[in-house]
Design a protein that fits this description.
Blueprint (H helix, E strand, L loop, with lengths): L7 E8 L2 H11 L3 E8 L2 E10 L8 E6 L12 E8 L5 H11 L7 E3 L2 E7 L5 E5 L23 E9 L3 H10 L3 E6 L2 E5 L8 E6 L13 E8 L2 H13 L8 E2 L3 E7 L5 E9 L24 H7 L6
Length: 312
């Protein structure tokens, strides 16, 4: 099997205040709070997961919210925007909502023939809404304020900012199975032919761009989907065969992951679809309680004592 990835699995970013992040993504954007856990490497810090109702790979945006972290800067060597798919006709709803809630947004534009609007989260992370002509059967999360016909469906694309796109393009095409489909100015689009949705990666070539600073309001890493451990092990061997440094698979409870930094500087993750987010709580109560990895369960009370309380 030549193509072992099937699109985006999740994107992980860095935030500052945990309550502010939680409110924005659940109340303003209406995403489902899929999982409340901790950073496996820093259990005194939350790890939040947001997605659609079914918590499908390709809809999951995650955050490490570190209080008092400095402001980051989007730039070269990073994923610099995250795009969501929305139903056609949703732009008026979201424009009015952003204006009413004081959300900083950009003028609507068009990209590769599809209407798009950009806006910023409270930490300055650039998000985009695209009404794509591509079929997207994913169901967004419905709230009291956001009906199904307006809800965010899941990822449409992510954009990587690079000094030169050629080395990264080779990784996408030769290792991850993406195909180039066009360019618009200095933006080069790549699509995963096996992805039913959430399969687009844009490479933005900025020869004189400024290097990014990874802190609040920036993306930490981009994760690509594989179906299972067998596919992940096969891809691990492909990555090693081209001389890239890559981790062994790591158990993240909800998926198994390996990590490597592509030549342009962006941290890539390969994540399995299995076992999924229902491994430790049922679908109808996802995100309602703090879930800890086994190695930290004995320290639950100490961890709870340092984590900030969340309010609806």
């Amino acid at each position: 099997m030549n193509n072992l990835t099937t699109g985006l699995h999740h994107v992980t970013a860095i935030a500052g205040n945990a309550q502010r992040n939680y409110h924005f993504y659940t109340q303003v954007l209406g995403l489902r709070f899929v999982k409340k856990t901790v950073n496996f490497d820093d259990p005194g810090t939350y790890h939040f997961y947001y997605g659609n109702y079914a918590a499908e790979p390709g809809t999951i945006l995650t955050f490490f919210p570190w209080a008092n972290i400095r402001q980051g800067r989007a730039g070269i060597g990073q994923a610099t925007s995250i795009g969501y798919s929305v139903p056609e006709g949703a732009f008026g709803f979201w424009k009015e909502r952003f204006d009413a809630l004081g959300i900083r947004s950009l003028p609507p534009t068009e990209r590769f023939g599809a209407p798009l609007v950009g806006f910023f989260d409270p930490d300055g992370l650039l998000l985009e809404l695209t009404a794509s002509a591509l079929s997207d059967a994913r169901l967004g999360h419905v709230t009291n304020e956001i009906p199904a016909e307006m809800a965010l469906k899941g990822f449409h694309q992510t954009t990587l900012s690079l000094q030169s796109i050629a080395p990264t393009a080779r990784i996408l095409t030769e290792l991850l199975g993406y195909e180039p489909v066009g360019m618009q100015g200095n933006r080069h689009r790549f699509v995963n032919p096996l992805a039913t949705a959430g399969g687009i990666v844009d490479l933005l070539e900025e020869n004189d761009g400024r290097k990014g600073l990874n802190a609040a309001g920036t993306v930490h890493h981009v994760a690509f989907r594989v179906p299972d451990d067998t596919a992940e092990r096969a891809l691990l061997e492909k990555i090693r065969s081209v001389g890239l440094q890559v981790t062994d698979p790591i158990d993240r409870n909800y998926f198994h992951s390996l990590y490597f930094r592509e030549p342009g500087g962006v941290l890539f993750e390969i994540a399995t679809d299995t076992p999924g987010f229902m491994v430790d709580e049922p679908l109808d109560s996802l995100g309602e309680s703090l879930k800890l990895p086994p190695q930290y369960e004995a320290y639950r009370e100490q961890i709870l004592a340092v984590l900030p309380n969340l309010h609806q």
